[in-house]
Amino acid sequence: VVYKYLLRFIHQLDEAKKKMMMHLRLLLLASLSLSCSLVSAFSSSSPQQQHLPNYLPNNPDDVVRQAATSITNAYDCGVYLQTIRLPLSQAIYGNKEEGFVADRAIGWQGGPMETYRYLSPMVNNLLPRIRTANNTAGLNIKVSEQILLDFDGSSLQTSENPAGALYDIQALLQPNTDGYYIKTIQAIEEQFCNTKKADKPNRLFLLVNPAWRDKSSFGIFGAQKAQELILDRYETTYALDQFIVRGRQISLLKCWSSDWGLYAVVNNGGDGKDKSMPAELIASYATRPEYKVIDAALKGVVSK
Fold it and tell me: Which tens digit of pLDDT belongs to each residue from 109-123?
């Protein structure tokens, strides 16, 4: 009889132990689920806001270095489809003079074929500086270029990373609103950017100095498609634009992940054309400011 009760007690003890282990297992699973949710929430949040520099780059190499850093930071945050805008005039640099073109039409040196001649070597210099792989084994990154439509000044540059094809980059220079470029962008996304591998990142694809600003550039019939295919998906990760406001040279700088910075030469009541004075950061905006906003900001800090 004692032996029978002892067996029953052991059996009940085993059952209690099983229930306790089941509860512990459920508790562990719940903890893991909560941890995954927290990690997902933090990883999907916006990256830490970066501070804008106080002054603009001093030369084209500084622009390339600054752009490469911004593009790399965005790539590390999972932004594989990017738009960048590089300056097409050396008038932004303090020791450069370009006469009428620099003073009245900053960044415009002629038609697309002329701007291509300035832009192409700049992008060729930029692509190898974008870090998509941590180790290239000391080997150089090779950059090649394919001319698309010469009268549009458009081309496709490809950087081949020695770490492997998954780390290659493609850059489409000066696409415009023509349907040819919409199809080209779709084809590059399908054939190059999308690796179709769940455990591998997509490859980096850049739109460099596109001819559009917003969906109105595409006309009534193409606006919605452009918004869905390009404008909503390609984030501006670097931009340096120049133009003239109130007779002064103005620059807008966007770096990842900072606001848009407004820069101007403010030299105690001068006309803003003193090349010895660097352009200073005078305001910042969450989105690219319109002309009237820039004009109001300039009016507030520059003595007439």
Answer: 568 888 899 899 999
Listed as own residue / partner, the contacts of 246-252 with beta carbons closer than 8 Å and 24 or more positions apart are 246/295, 246/298, 246/299, 246/302, 247/271, 247/272, 248/272, 248/273, 248/298, 248/302, 249/91, 249/92, 249/103, 249/106, 249/273, 249/279, 250/294, 250/298, 251/56, 251/92, 251/279, 252/288, 252/289, 252/294
Q: Long-range contacts for 31-34 (Cβ within 8 Å, ≥24 apart)?
A: none
Distance CA 241, CA 82 (A): 17
Closest CA to 209 of 231, 242, 239: 239
195 vs 291: CA distance, rounded Å: 41
Four-point Cα dihedral 62, 66, 69, 72, nearest 10: -110
Q: How far apart are CA 230 and CA 233, in angstroms?
A: 5
pLDDT tens track for 77-89: 999 999 999 988 6
In sequence order, which residues have a C-beta less than 8 Å from that of residue 11 and are 6 or more positions away?
none
Say what percent of the chain tops pLDDT 70: 70
What's the pLDDT band for 103 if we cut at 50, 70, 90? very low
Contact 135, 163 (CB under 8 A): yes
Tokens 């949710």, located at residue: 37
Identity of the amino acid at 226:
A
The structure's pTM equals 0.76
Q: Residue 81 forms beta bridges with which residues?
A: 205
Distance CA 192, CA 208 (A): 17
* Cβ pair 144, 160 in contact under 8 A: yes
Distance, CA of 276 to CA of 246 (rounded, Å):
20
Please, which residues have CB within 8 angstroms of residue 223's CB and are 6 or more apart in sequence?
A: 215, 216
Contacts of 164 (CB under 8 A, 6+ apart): 133
For residues 57 and 92, what is the distance between their CA atoms, to the nearest angstrom? 9
Residue, of 260 and 58, whose pLDDT is higher: 260
Q: Residue 234: name the closest of 255, 210, 257 by CA.
A: 210
